[in-house]
Amino acid sequence: MLDYMVMPFKRYADFKGRSLRIEYWGFALLNFIVYAVILGISMVLGFSFGAFQQVEQGGDPSALFGAGFFTLVGLAGIYSLAVFIPSIAVAVRRFHDRDMSGWWYLGFIVLGLIPFVGWIATIASFVITCLPGTPGPNRFGMDPRDPTGAEVFA
């Protein structure tokens, strides 16, 4: 499983080919874990959601900008920049596995910006990433489950 989680980093800007569901969702799980750890580190260093409540009640806004806040923004920003291209690439390869062009991903992103339509586009994109890929080779390459393309009982 760990191999699939880090595979998008190995295929950093590879927009060709296909990716299995486990690679896509493993990478999503890795991102969730990393952001949870960054949030945990920030909480330990003093970032507090209680500071937001104090600011809303008329408190000093500079209380938000402690060491925890800068740790959160810095680490999360650096990690976000590091995974930006691999995230797009693995999503495009996941669409390729469904025999869909990677431009569909851009279409879902644009549709996601439109109120109400964005919810439908997000749900549709989620469903597409959950569906199994097309069996056998398609126009984007060989089946990652069966790279030799051999049919045993043919």
TrEMBL record:
User: Record's InterPro entries?
Assistant: DUF805
The region annotated as signal peptide is none
Q: Which domain of life is it from?
A: Bacteria
Give the keywords, sorted.
Membrane, Transmembrane, Transmembrane helix
What is the source species? Answer: Novosphingobium pentaromativorans
Q: Where are the transmembrane segments?
A: 24-52, 64-91, 103-128
Return the protein name.
DUF805 domain-containing protein
| Pfam families referenced in this protein's UniProt entry, alphabetically | DUF805 (PF05656)
Q: Which GO terms describe its cellular component?
A: plasma membrane
